Amino acid sequence: MDRYVSRPVTPPTLADVAEVAGVSRQTVSNAINNPDLLREDTLARVQEAIDQLGYLPNRAARNLRTRASQLIGLCLPRAHEGARSALLDRFVRTLVESSRGAGYHVLLFSTDEDDPFAGYDDLLRSTAVDAFIVPETHLGNDVVEWLMGRRAKFVAFGRPWGNPHATYPWVDIDTAKGSEAATRHLIDRGHTKIAWIGWRKGSVLGEERRLGWARTMHAAGLPMTGLASRVEDIVTSGRAAAEALLDESSPTAFVCATDALAMGVLNALDARGLKVGIDVAVVGYGDSPVSQMVPGGLTTIRQPLEDAAVALVEALESLLSFPPTIAAGLMLEPKLIVRGSS
Amino acid sequence: MDRYVSRPVTPPTLADVAEVAGVSRQTVSNAINNPDLLREDTLARVQEAIDQLGYLPNRAARNLRTRASQLIGLCLPRAHEGARSALLDRFVRTLVESSRGAGYHVLLFSTDEDDPFAGYDDLLRSTAVDAFIVPETHLGNDVVEWLMGRRAKFVAFGRPWGNPHATYPWVDIDTAKGSEAATRHLIDRGHTKIAWIGWRKGSVLGEERRLGWARTMHAAGLPMTGLASRVEDIVTSGRAAAEALLDESSPTAFVCATDALAMGVLNALDARGLKVGIDVAVVGYGDSPVSQMVPGGLTTIRQPLEDAAVALVEALESLLSFPPTIAAGLMLEPKLIVRGSS
DNA sequence: TTGAAAGCGCTAACAC
DNA sequence: GTGTTAGCGCTTTCAA
Questions:
Q1: pLDDT category, A84, cuts 50, 70, 90?
Q2: Would you call A108 and B109 a contact, using CB atoms and an 8 Å cutoff?
Q3: Do the Cβ atoms of A338 and A185 come closer than 8 Å?
Q4: Inter-chain CB proximity A60 and B79 less than 8 Å
Q5: Where are chain B's structural domains?
Q6: Measured between alpha carbons, how far is B296 from A38 in angstroms, rounded to an integer?
Q7: For B199 and C15, how far is CA from C1' in angstroms?
Q8: C-alpha distance from A220 to closest chain B C-alpha (Å)
């Protein structure tokens, strides 16, 4: 009586299925892992029992036996400067979906302030994950080297900045190509005085993005002196920088390292009665939600985060297959999204 | 020779530690799980061996034995309407951090288009997680009921909308209180014609937020006719709604169901030459990055997502402790963030 | 093609 | 206090 009401739900085991199907446990195991080995009618009978009981192999037992967890560890980077949060959303969501396709789940973990390796170390030593996805390699945290020292499996989201011939799999977005596309777009529109507003020195990503602008300007034979500015990544700084640049060199277009900075430029232009997209063109970076909310829209650069996530999982699959294969580094290109501001 | 170079890193086991410490395996296990049982010097010796080898219990083995995985499943809701992505970031980040404090990791999974239970079912039947955190109960997906039917452990992020006396633990944010605070704030500022721009009917959350406005207006004896509008949650719709309301009833203030809608209002005011925060006040909802980027800033409602995450983990801890305790439902209040637009 | 035995690494129950 | 024994549920030999 009581058992139907309050019996704790203990999922069926291999043995339960075997009993129902009238075969041995191993045969059930084979039905799941090597169905080819079974005769057709046996397989069908076992399958029926599996369906009837709603059987699914116990993860812990399987993990223990196969020395694999079907789990991929992703360290949630500490809260970023700026509004990079929306990116994380797009990235993680796709990561989870494509991992599922590959038979893996994503395990999230955070890391200690003091010890950046602690989280990785624990998971590794307790064999809790099969591999890691390591984001933000540009920050110069030496997680990658540390993991290699431990012979841990991982795929990096970010090129090997230090040594270009690193022997680990990675996927990255060629961020310089973004500002390059932005600048070329403005040149095509007829602009010749194109200003750059970027991050303070010291950010690898910031320097890369700046490089895209500089490279393109140089190739087009356009002047750059007095047209570059490096500030903190907040709206007010972007605005101040724009004011200064307008006073100094009156550019007709701005390329910015982030959408937040571009918003600052928009504010500055607005305050001066300059019409965005008509008097002065502005391009941001990131395709954050803001860029669509601004009246007329903000031309910006969209990073292929979804593609990156898919590529990372593919690289992970080769890494975890037998024999393991180290996928070649893959560089993806960001995309210019033209809206009203240019 | 070779072994130091390419030997695969097999983490040490309990037996290894036991051997080094010169005790039995069980004693090592006790040293970890019931240290009180050991004599001080034995404990010290075992601890030393543990440190020396860098031992950490194998997860799979422990999970198998204890019938627990120390994993909490979180279903990533499908991409939302609107820019709710930043929320996810704040929420998930805190969730991961406080889970870590409780000895748990967060396992992310997604769900099938067709079968909303599939993801839950798989994890449950394979005993891959100890409990779930179920977001978005307001969407009327009956995940909660399904889980209860399965006697699965979970904590809901969202009150039991259907039956107020549900016997499962939940944490929610009283979203109506947000628009209530926004409206009261505007009344305090001397406004009497306060318009509402919300979502189309059918959204539980949307109706709640509207209720906050209506309730407060009613209590203050202020008129509401011709002052409410329900549109799609995008900037252009917000703008159109604002135009219409301005033409019709010339409100001096707007309360919006989202920041995106508020942005639309800002655009409309701008187009008419009305000064935001001076001629007309505007309040958004969500404290999205946009609200800080707008010149002067957008007054908005901030949801205590971090608090919610912490509370959810606390509820989870009581649920997973022995004996299990079902924490009382907890309602958190959002907070008004006053910026230049009001 | 199917079945029996062994054991992955750990912890719960008991003996010493 | 410490060690011995058993077994969690599964897969991997190896026999039949």
A1: low
A2: no
A3: yes
A4: no
A5: 14-55, 71-173+306-332, 175-302
A6: 71
A7: 70
A8: 33
Identify the CATH number of the domain defined by range B71-173+306-332. 3.40.50.2300
Element (H, E) at B324: none
Contact A150 B9 (CB under 8 A): yes
Task: Give the per-residue pLDDT at B81.
Answer: 45
> What confidence score (pLDDT) does residue A9 get?
66
pTM of the model as a whole: 0.93
Average pLDDT taken over every residue of chain B: 91
Per-residue confidence at B312, pLDDT binned at 50, 70, 90?
A: very high
pLDDT single digits (tens) A7-21:
456 889 999 999 999
* Helix ranges restricted to H, A189-257: 204-219, 235-249
Which chain B residues 43-102 have CB under 7 A to strand D? 43, 61, 64-65, 67
Residues of A in contact with B270 (CB under 8 A): 295
Q: Is the CB of B25 under 7 A from strand D?
A: yes
The CATH homologous superfamily of the domain defined by B175-302: Response regulator (3.40.50.2300)
Residues B290, A83: Cα–Cα separation, whole Å: 9
Q: Which class does domain B14-55 fall in?
A: mainly alpha
Please, which positions of strand C sit below 7 A from a protein CB? 1-5, 7-13
Cis peptide before A8 (omega within 30 of 0): no
Residue range B308-320: mean pLDDT, rounded:
97
Let me know if the fold of B71-173+306-332 is the same as that of B175-302: yes
Kind plus residue range of the DSSP H or E element containing B22? none
